[in-house]
């Protein structure tokens, strides 16, 4: 039987702190979340590998370092409300729940949203609300948000997110074409509600599907 706790600490030391992300709150949040419970059972031995892994419904759970980089860039404080778009298995939302007051996680695939919600309830992450909806439109009923993070690449930052972001808040998401290299960007909304964009790192993500993003792929 694997020692998942030891594997988790090695992952934190080598993949996150070892790459320069050493904020104690961030590292403690990753230490508090059992990643092996957010992947299919047949892949739990690989839960702490330095790569993305497949999950249910043909989707993926992001590489641990990319989750850490995104969460770190969002600068989540203990009183913050966070919107996560593309909840997937719920892993990133669980990590952010250790940093924020509340996390609203939206997922367009209902089956994935149900699984993520079940994980949150079974693991006691009771400050996470998982909803199934078009994440490109944000979640206006829960706005404003201090941070919005996304695990899928859009052609641009959705206008709906900018409208739902609190002054001083941050959006962290990959932007770029479906094929090819994308850029992880951070958009900060100043006190006058003017956005300021920074490019953080080249990445590759699945496309963000929705009314303010890419169209649903043609199954043919």
Summarize this structure briefly:
By secondary structure, the chain is of the alpha/beta class.
Please describe the topology of this protein.
Layout: H1 4-16, H2 24-31, E1 53-54, E2 60-61, H3 64-74, E3 81-85, H4 91-97, E4 102-107, H5 110-123, E5 128-132, E6 145-150, H6 159-164, E7 165-175, E8 182-189, E9 195-203
Parallel strand pairs: 3-4, 3-6, 4-5, 6-7
Antiparallel strand pairs: 1-2, 7-8, 8-9
Active site: 62
InterPro entries: PCMT, SAM-dependent_MTases_sf
GO cellular component, one term: cytoplasm
Describe this structure in words.
27% of the residues lie in helices and 25% in strands. The chain has helices spanning 4-16, 24-31, 64-74, 91-97, 110-123, 159-164, and strands at residues 53-54, 60-61, 81-85, 102-107, 128-132, 145-150, 165-175, 182-189, 195-203. The mean pLDDT is 95. Strand 1 and strand 2 form a beta hairpin. The chain has a single domain, classed as 3-Layer(aba) Sandwich (Rossmann fold). It is an alpha/beta fold and 220 residues long.
Query: What integer is the average pLDDT?
Result: 95
Q: Span from first to last CA?
A: 43 Å
Major β-sheet strand ordering: 5-4-3-6-7-8-9
How many independent structural domains? 1
- Runs in which pLDDT lies below 50 for 5 or more consecutive residues are none
Q: What Rg is obtained from the alpha carbons, in whole angstroms?
A: 16 Å
Q: Give the proportion of residues in helices.
A: 25-40%
Strand percentage lies at: 15-25%
Look at the structure and name the CATH superfamily. Answer: Vaccinia Virus protein VP39
Order of helices and strands: HHEEHEHEHEEHEEE
The profile of the biggest β sheet is: 7 strands, mixed
CATH fold annotation: Rossmann fold
- Identify the CATH architecture: 3-Layer(aba) Sandwich
Number of strands: 9
* Overall SS class: alpha/beta
- CATH secondary-structure class: Alpha Beta
Principal-axes geometry comes out as: globular
């Amino acid at each position: 039987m694997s020692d998942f706790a030891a594997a988790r600490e090695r992952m934190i030391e080598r993949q996150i702190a070892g790459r320069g992300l050493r904020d104690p709150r961030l590292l403690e949040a990753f230490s508090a979340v059992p990643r092996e419970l957010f992947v299919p059972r047949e892949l739990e031995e690989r839960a702490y590998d330095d790569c993305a892994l497949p999950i249910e419904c043909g989707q993926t759970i992001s590489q641990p370092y990319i989750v850490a980089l995104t969460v770190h860039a969002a600068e989540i404080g203990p009183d913050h409300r966070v919107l996560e778009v593309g909840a997937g298995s719920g892993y990133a939302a669980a990590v952010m729940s250790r940093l924020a007051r509340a996390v609203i996680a939206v997922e367009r695939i209902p089956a994935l949203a149900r699984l993520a919600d079940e994980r949150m309830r079974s693991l006691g992450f009771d400050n996470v609300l998982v909803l199934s909806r078009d994440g490109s439109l944000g979640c206006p009923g829960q706005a404003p948000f201090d941070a919005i993070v996304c695990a899928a690449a859009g052609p641009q930052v959705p206008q709906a997110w900018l409208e739902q972001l609190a002054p001083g808040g941050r959006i962290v998401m990959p932007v770029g074409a479906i094929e090819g290299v994308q850029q992880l960007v951070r958009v900060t909304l100043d006190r006058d509600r003017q956005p300021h964009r920074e490019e953080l790192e080249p990445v590759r993500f699945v496309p963000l599907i929705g009314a303010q993003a890419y169209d649903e792929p043609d199954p043919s």
